[in-house]
Amino acid sequence: MTNRRRAALLLSLILAVAGCATSRNLDHTVNDFGASTELKAALFADRKHDYGDIDTTIYEGRLLLTGTMVSEQGRQKLVENARKAGGISEIIDDVVIGERTSFGQGVEDTRIDATLRARLVASKEVDSEDVKIAVSKGVVYLLGAASDEAELNAALDIARSVSGVDKVVSHLLLKAR
User: Fold this and answer.
1) pTM for the full model?
2) Domain map of the chain by residue range?
């Protein structure tokens, strides 16, 4: 294992431990971290495809794949690699076939992401710890859980209110009571 990879793994572990101080169950947080690490290792080992424009978002074993692949073959290999990672109970494939995201669009997506995260954290209607965000080419993807319809709708409304958002795709589930 290279020093760079060790440093990345250590940083990921520190961030995961910091994330454990949330309302989410510690087991789910640790399992998601392990699944993410396995998936990233599998993608890194696959030298035939470029996954540089792919985002992987995991919440309680549900994996959301977003971004762009230049070919259908590459998208299929991405999903195949995702199936190899342990701890993933569901794969949500929202990958688009097309050209990579331009630098300018990447900057805009980052701004949308940061604005939306700030608004969710500031919201009294949404538990931001239970909402994961991915943004690709102006499309916002939400993954996670809401305690009720009101919280789910509030998260959607907040996402739609961010300038530059073209579309909001929800993969939010209602929490079991």
Assistant:
1) 0.80
2) 3-97, 103-174
| Domain 3-97 top-level CATH class | alpha beta
How would you write the pLDDT of the chain (177 residues) with one tens digit per residue?
A: 555 555 555 445 555 444 444 444 556 677 788 788 888 888 888 888 899 999 999 999 999 999 999 999 999 999 999 998 888 999 999 999 999 999 999 999 999 999 999 999 999 999 999 999 999 999 999 999 999 999 999 999 999 999 999 999 999 999 886
Alpha-carbon distances, residue 25 vs 29, 98, 148 (angstroms): 6, 37, 19
Q: What's the DSSP call for residue 101? A: P
Asked whether the CA dihedral 78, 86, 25, 20 is positive or negative, the reply is negative
